[in-house]
């Protein structure tokens, strides 16, 4: 994939990302992993790094992928392509907002987009859980044995997930501290 093709890919992702960067993850995965530009493992590593760094995840992912594939110029061009549709749409909306603010069709379309966006956000959450915590068996017949069930989960990651959820919600540890602990855990145990 050339830099121009990558920029156009991220322009289209930016154009159709309604609901924020979490929705962009699904579109990026379909555009990058399914076409073989990057592997699934690389993609989830990029998601983890992009989630751990400040800023919107969609822009972080665009910057990271652009940099990984084409260096600093790639990072700048792909990031610009990712944000350009949003800038254009915001300028158009700002120009016509007063005219359409009370329009029933606009209200109806926005009401319909809420559940769709929720579903698009849920997809990468489930995919990350499946990739990190569950070892999907090649055949369902493996689950007919105790050993098959023992191998179903990545027990170290599942235990760490439980500990981090406890630290985040019960101990009220700051999310940045949890992210740093997660990075240290990954370096030490995985």
From TrEMBL:
On whether Cell membrane is a keyword of this UniProt record, the answer is yes
Q: Name one GO molecular function term.
A: chromate transmembrane transporter activity
Question: Which InterPro entries would you find in this protein's record?
Answer: CHR_Transporter, Chromate_transpt
Annotated membrane topology is:
Multi-pass membrane protein
Where does the UniProt annotation locate this protein? Answer: Cell membrane
> What is the predominant subcellular site recorded for this chain?
membrane
| Protein's UniProt keywords contain Coiled coil | no
Which terms in the GO cellular component ontology are assigned? Answer: plasma membrane
Q: Which UniProt keywords apply?
A: Cell membrane, Membrane, Transmembrane, Transmembrane helix
Tell me any Pfam family this protein matches. Chromate_transp
Transmembrane region positions? Answer: 75-97, 109-132, 152-168, 173-189
What is stated as this protein's family in its record?
Belongs to the chromate ion transporter (CHR) (TC 2.A.51) family.
Q: What is this protein called?
A: Chromate transporter
Organism for this UniProt entry: Treponema bryantii
């Amino acid at each position: 994939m050339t830099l121009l093709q990558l920029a156009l890919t991220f322009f289209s992702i930016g154009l159709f990302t309604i609901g924020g960067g979490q929705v962009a993850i699904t579109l990026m995965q379909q555009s990058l992993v399914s076409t073989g530009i990057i592997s699934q493992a690389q993609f989830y590593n990029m998601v983890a790094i992009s989630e751990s760094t400040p800023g919107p995840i969609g822009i972080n992912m665009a910057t990271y992928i652009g940099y990984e594939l084409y260096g600093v110029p790639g990072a700048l061009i792909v990031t610009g392509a990712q944000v350009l549709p949003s800038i254009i749409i915001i300028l158009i909306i700002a120009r016509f907002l007063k005219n359409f603010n009370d329009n029933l069709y606009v209200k109806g379309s926005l009401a319909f987009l809420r559940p769709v966006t929720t579903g698009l956000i849920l997809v990468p959450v489930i995919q990350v859980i499946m990739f990190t915590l569950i070892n999907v068996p090649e055949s369902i017949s493996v689950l007919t044995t105790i050993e098959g069930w023992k191998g179903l989960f990545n027990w170290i990651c599942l235990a760490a997930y439980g500990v981090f959820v406890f630290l985040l919600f019960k101990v009220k540890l700051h999310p940045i501290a949890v992210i740093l602990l997660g990075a240290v855990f990954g370096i030490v145990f995985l």
